[in-house]
Amino acid sequence: MKDLLDSWKSLDSRLSTARRVCILTDFDGTLVPLGPSPELSNLPSPVLGVLESLSRHPLVTVGIVSGRALSDLVHRINLDGIWYVGNHGFEIRSPGGRELRYYSPEEILLLDSARDQLRLATADIPGVLLEHKGPIVAVHYRAVAPDRVSEVQRAFQEVLRSWSPRLMMSPGNMVLEIRLRSNCNKGMAVRQIRRELAAGCLVLYFGDDLTDRDVFREIRRVGVSIEVGAADSTHADYSLRDPGAVLEALQRMEERLYRRSGFPRMERGQPY
């Protein structure tokens, strides 16, 4: 798979001719490095600045597509006028602020019980972090000793077996998630976003996780997919080595799109 920065001319020519551009990106592992726990992952100011600048461009749509809960995602980014997708597509907020949630309060009670079982099953394994995000309960094992990760996986599978008719598993980057059995995923969410875009809009998606590959499949042949941290992957059109390279790519896009259009760039915090 080609490195995007090394193959920039190819993308640059598409950015130069696209009628409109939609830039969508995962959060953890893509815009920010994976930290020891989710609450410690904060968006660096240069990344926030370039996202805001791109979102203000009249011909650009920006969106964040994440496994985080929607409320947490909005709080961490705090930009108006962009798409937010939370919990892998179970929650979507449009640029105008309209929110959709594909689950009921009754279904959340199932996850409450599953979380309690997971807590008991992993209580003796140091480093396990449980995160209840509404329609999803995540079992993070970033801080678990490597020789005990298999214990986390076995405990997770044992709990899942008792809930398999109603709940399902989704693996991620150093995380196992138990979620409502549904066809909600990041790819389906991006399909909804694409329906709202103007005809001929070029869609670009940055992601690092297994769950992002649903989007790569969704935009195959109609967009540009970039996988972060997986240079040998065959799932995306391009690769980038890490979030620092993602920032550089976004900055290059910002430069190209503003230079092409002649629209003035506004400083961060300057009113629209």
**Which consecutive residue ranges, at least 5 long each, have pLDDT under 50?**
none
Strand order in the largest sheet? 1-13-12-11-2-3-4-5-6
Structural class of the secondary elements?
Answer: alpha/beta
Write the H/E string, N to C.
EHEHEHEEEHEEHEEHEHEEH
Helix content: 25-40%
Would you count the extended β strands for me? 13
Q: What general outline do the C-alpha atoms trace?
A: globular
Through-space gap between termini: 39 Å
- Main sheet: strands, sense, barrel: 9 strands, mixed
Mean pLDDT: 91
In terms of DSSP E residues, the strand content is: 15-25%
Rg calculated over all Cα atoms: 19 Å
Count of separate DSSP helical elements: 8
Short description:
The chain has 272 residues and is an alpha/beta fold.
Please explain how this structure is put together.
The protein is of the alpha/beta class. It is built from eight helices and 13 strands. Strands 1-13-12-11-2-3-4-5-6 form a nine-stranded mixed β-sheet, sandwiched between helices. It is globular, with a radius of gyration of 19 Å.
